[in-house]
Amino acid sequence: MTDTASPADGTVPPEKLVRVYLKMRTARDALVKDHEAELSKVEASMQQVKLALLAYCKEHNIESVRTKAGLFYRSIRQRYWTNDWESMGKFVVEHNVPELLEKRLHQGNTKTFLEQNPDLLPPGLNVDSEFTVTVRKA
User: Fold this and answer.
1) What is the pLDDT of residues 72-87, one digit of tens each?
2) DSSP assignment of 63-120, as one string?
């Protein structure tokens, strides 16, 4: 039996399944492309709203606002990283703090270490802090 012949048991031949699958995949890819463009526009608009909410918090020197529509609040997100893994590794060993590592810096442990040891700064450590806003439904 060839790939194009219809099997006697009524199953669909593999060649036909491949054609159908390829058509479906092409259709799916087109849908994804169309929706990605729409989604990108919505996400950009949402980012503008978040920036306006952050500006409102800053302007009024407040951390959260409850409205009839819902609650929004700002918080600080901090990230820690290093560009000098060799020095960081030596620091970790010297101060016996392996909990700072994951293959990247462990964010919570690094923050705690810095708070508990303000006089020790690991070489190559970078810190990025920014306000973020979270929106919750009422």
Assistant:
1) 999 999 999 999 999 9
2) SEEE-SSEEEEEEEEEEEEES-HHHHHHHHHHTT-GGGBSSSB-HHHHHHHHHH-TT-
Residues with Cβ within 8 Å of residue 14, at least 6 apart in sequence: 3
Sheet (strand 125-137) strand order = 64-66, 70-82, 125-137
- 85: which 2 tokens? 């893994």
- Euclidean distance between CA atoms 125 and 89, whole angstroms: 12
Identify which has the larger pLDDT, 112 or 2.
112
Question: Per residue in 84-135, pLDDT tens?
Answer: 999 999 999 999 999 999 878 999 999 999 999 999 999 999 999 998 877 7
Calculate the alpha carbon distances from 80 to 62, 97, 104 in Å: 26, 15, 9
Within 13 Å, how many C-alpha atoms sit on residue 100's CB side?
Answer: 24
Q: Are 77 and 130 in contact (CB under 8 A)?
A: yes
Q: Kindly report the number of other CB atoms within 10 A of residue 116's CB atom.
A: 8
